[in-house]
Write a structure and sequence with these properties.
Chain A: It holds the Pfam family ABC_tran. The complex is a heterodimer of chains A (221) and B (286). With 221 residues, chain A is an alpha/beta fold. Chain A is 36% helix and 27% strand. Chain A contains 9 helices and 10 strands. In chain A, the strands form 2 sheets. In chain A, strands 6-7-8-3-9-10 form a 6-stranded mixed beta sheet, with helices on both faces. In chain A, strands 2-1-4-5 form a 4-stranded antiparallel beta sheet, covered by helices on one side. Chain B is built from 11 helices and 2 strands, in the order ααααββααααααα. The chains are: A alpha/beta (221), B mainly alpha (286).
Amino acid sequence: MLHIEELSASYGEAKVLTSAGLSVAQGEVATLCGRNGAGKTTLLRCVMGLHPGSGKVSLNGTDLRGRKPFERARLGLGWVPDDRGAYATLTVAESLALPPMRSGWSLEQIYEAFPNLYARRGSMSTKLSGGEQQMLALARALRMGSRVLLCDEPTEGLSPLLVQRVGEILRQAKQQGIAVLLVEQNLHFAAEVADSYYLLASGRVQQTSPADKDLLTYLGV
Amino acid sequence: MLQHVFNGLVGGSFLALVALGLAVIFGMLRVVNFAHGAIYMLGAFGALALTGEAFWAALVVVPVGLGLLGMVLERTVVNRLARLDPLYNFLLTFGLTLVLQDLVKWRYGVQSSPYPTPAGLGGSVDFGLFDFPAYRVFVLVVAAIVCFGVWFLLSRTRLGLIVRACTERPELSAALGVNVGRWVTPVFGFGVALAGLAGVLAAPMRAVHPLMGADLIIVVFAVVVIGGLGSIFGSVAAAFAIGVLQALSEAYLDSALVSQILVYVVMAAVLLWRPSGLFGREESPA
């Protein structure tokens, strides 16, 4: 479904990614681990077209090279950013109505899955709690009908109960055939939802598993 | 007193229309359009070129024409500097101001040109306690309708939803499938058209001369800073408030100079108290 090959990216002189590659199949949750500053967010931004990078990214066989972020979103990439992507000038209902593609979950499904969002549909998005903002970011991607979710640390700063809820939502998405590329530091959470694991270190990506002693040592788990 | 407040609201109308355009452009493009004052001046000269009975036509034709000119300028020059330091666009629009001013000076000279009160708006309107000149009432009504229209457009329509989202977080909006680039040129043109409309409305009331925009734009910048950079509501509210403050201080302190200084004192006080302006918000992460 999502295939990344030979992806390289830099910030000025500093090379962040060097020939990175990974694949995520339909209905698969792939977790990308790595230390802070390893380039995990950069990799997601390159896939979304928000950061320049060389190499090949394809979605369902469609080469995404040269395509702008809005085109990539319309082709099926769902962006769930690490800052939760809340708008100060848009209500919850408006945030859900913003994407031009709304072929995924219906509003009824969204509000049934996220009752807090229904209760606060008239509130400005930035007035929501951190957990509610995270739910809104996930709900927006699911409403868009995204086929691949790019989730950047969705559990960061959330209470254990909300972490569990995020896990439930990702599992539900997975059952519907949605692929998830999950950047996650919380390896315990990742172990609950992920099918495959990748470690990003020194700009390179290698496949691994949570049982991998080196990975646990590397992440300090 | 009531008369001075009314005159202040009329003066604030011009500030509001120009500030509204400036705020919309800054919000979406992060471009401080210094040429906005020159566009206001071109609006007044556009009305002058179509003088007399053609005022009503000028009210439509001139803003639309200037809006189209704005779109061409955005596509050809402003857009090219979009990814650079905002200072480059500031210098570019400052340069454009000088070019436009000199072109008008070359064609019309530096002296003020008179503009007659439009037919049908020459009398006064009786409000019971006071009579107000009909044209001034007309300006206030037009400004109020335009400000309400822009508010309605931005807060109650899908187009407004997209413009608000792109204005606040263009990168995130693009990642959500919104074609941000498609809206940049029309928004720039719309902002320019508002300044052109203010210029047409100003022609019968203000001295029409090549530097009239340069005089106004500095006050408008102060208004936009007081209201909050990028805040549409803040810019309009601050424009009317500053208009009234100027009219009252001119009337009771009997000094145009003190009146001008007061605007900047208010701006400095607001910046010290709330650096993002009265209705502005802290920059969100991109």
